[in-house]
Amino acid sequence: MALSIQSNAAATVIRNQLNRTNEGLGVALERLGSGFRINSAKDDAAGLQIATRLNAQLVGQETAMSNAANANSMLKTAEGAFDEMTNIGFRMKELATQAANGTNSTSEYTALSNEFIALQDELTNIMANTAYGAGTNLFAAGGKFTAAVTFQIGASTAETLAVDISADITAVDASVAAFAAITDFATAQTAMTAVDTLLTDVGAARASLGSYMNRLDHTINNLSNMAENTDAAKGMLMDADFAKETSNMTKQQLLMNSGISVLTTANTTTQMVAQLLR
Questions:
Q1: Taking a C-beta distance cutoff of 8 angstroms, is the pair 202, 172 a contact?
Q2: Does residue 4 register a pLDDT over 70?
Q3: 0.85 cut: is pTM over it?
């Protein structure tokens, strides 16, 4: 390379290299500061697109897990109400069986009937007022389970669960309404049959709810597994490798220091040319 005062090619080359080194140092510092390998589309356009899609899927999966857990809680509320109705049914069976005995007098029938009707009233109250949260009635007319209820249990529109126990609710309502006062041996036997029907209908409703709750438990487990692996895949694309970026930062800092030193030397070249004129 010829000595020249008009131009300093060496300094230009070094200055360009310093700019590239400074840019590399900036990238390393940005990644270390943010914790992300991809901070803008220019870092990895394809990777950003994939990571964005994975992140959307992850957000949907995590929300779906919350949906499924809430759905399970609602079903457990309903099943708990039916469990108490089963306990009431057992007591009503006991009363009706006790009444179906020729040893009872009129006063005993009155006492037995009073408790029997009081328990029927409580069954009616459970069906009318069982709710999940404020204003979300489950069994009354227009309640959640008087028609099919659809839960969003996945990140896509295809991942839904329709819970339909409306037929069971209708049957239980009819069983509760069928009870009458116990006044003699015949009405006591009728009550025994009515209680058996109630217990059968409540048992069917509980079985339906149980099957849905079991499915939701598996749904939540599967969503948890998918979310875990989706998050890991996103992290592989987006997360900064701190060991790598720290090493790269150190490398770029060394290059900057040496580049500045060399540029200083290159800039003194023209002064050395002037010495030839002496």
A1: yes
A2: no
A3: no
